[in-house]
Design a protein that fits this description.
264 residues, alpha/beta, 5-stranded parallel beta sheet, 8 helices, 7 strands, 61% helix
Length: 264
């Protein structure tokens, strides 16, 4: 790397690392400790360390052939990861565009949970419900399922809060909404919803709309397919611009972890 560009690269690397550390630390404080927060957090530490101590690191490895080779190998792995991340983002954008289209006639509509605060949906969850509402109204014969369990220290399930929001904000009959109130993950959302659909004589091989955030559509569809849903149709709700790219970044790691743990 040219010496004239080195200070700029170090500053950019340090800034990127600090942003990753702060963002992931904030999420972990809120209890979101998972593959999608730990890996970027560690990556941020590596970035900051290299940005601040670049010259010392270079001087250290220059005298040690093994570490020098290891250093280049690790940066090569990072380059390959960066390519895979770019491919994932490109694929995600294509999938989002398809998922923005109104779904055809479906047998059921499942709205996936995304967190609540003080008995109300978070902004992200509210957007999912706002996206689902016109579909629910437009398909009166479809079975509606809100899916989300009871959080730690809470008395109401997320599914119940979601159903209440649909009733109060969109005038949807509360009795029409089936509540799946045991799940704590996307995998469980879809797994426990199958029993509810079966009780309503809806086969999971039928077309079923799955309403979720745009960044989550690829993983939700993959999990549904793995669990036997024959025709899952993901419907994307928009993610606020202020957190959109952060959500995409974390979703990459969540997608990889889902693959490693056999969710699809």
């Amino acid at each position: 790397m040219r010496k004239s560009l080195l200070p700029i690269a170090r500053v950019l690397l340090t800034i990127a690392g600090v942003v990753l550390i702060i963002d992931c630390a904030a999420l972990m404080v809120m209890g979101k400790i998972n593959f999608g927060t730990l890996i970027p957090f560690l990556l941020g530490i590596v970035f900051v360390t290299h940005g601040i101590y670049w010259q010392r690191i270079r001087a250290f490895i220059a005298r040690r052939l093994f570490y020098k080779r290891l250093w280049y190998v690790l940066w090569g792995i990072f380059a390959l990861w960066l390519v895979s991340f770019i491919v994932f983002i490109g694929t995600l954008q294509q999938h989002i565009q398809r998922s923005l289209q109104p779904p055809p006639k479906v047998a059921a509509i499942i709205v996936l949970g995304s967190g609540t605060v003080d008995g109300k949906p978070t902004p992200t969850l509210a957007r999912r419900l706002d996206t689902a509402a016109p579909i629910i109204k437009g398909q009166p014969h479809a079975v509606v399922v809100t899916s989300g369990g009871v959080g730690i220290g809470r008395s109401r399930s997320e599914a119940n809060i979601m159903a209440t929001y649909l009733q109060q904000s969109h005038g949807i009959d509360f009795e029409r909404i089936r509540q799946e109130g045991k799940s704590t993950s996307t995998e469980e959302n879809l797994f426990y919803s199958k029993a509810i659909l079966g009780a309503q004589d809806v086969a999971i091989t039928q077309p079923i709309a799955i309403v979720t955030s745009d960044f989550h559509t690829i993983r939700a569809r993959a999990i549904a397919r793995h669990q036997g849903y024959g025709q899952p149709i993901t419907v994307a709700s928009p993610t606020p611009l202020s957190i959109r790219y952060n959500a995409w970044f974390r979703e990459y790691f969540a997608f990889v972890s889902g693959w490693l743990f056999g969710e699809y």
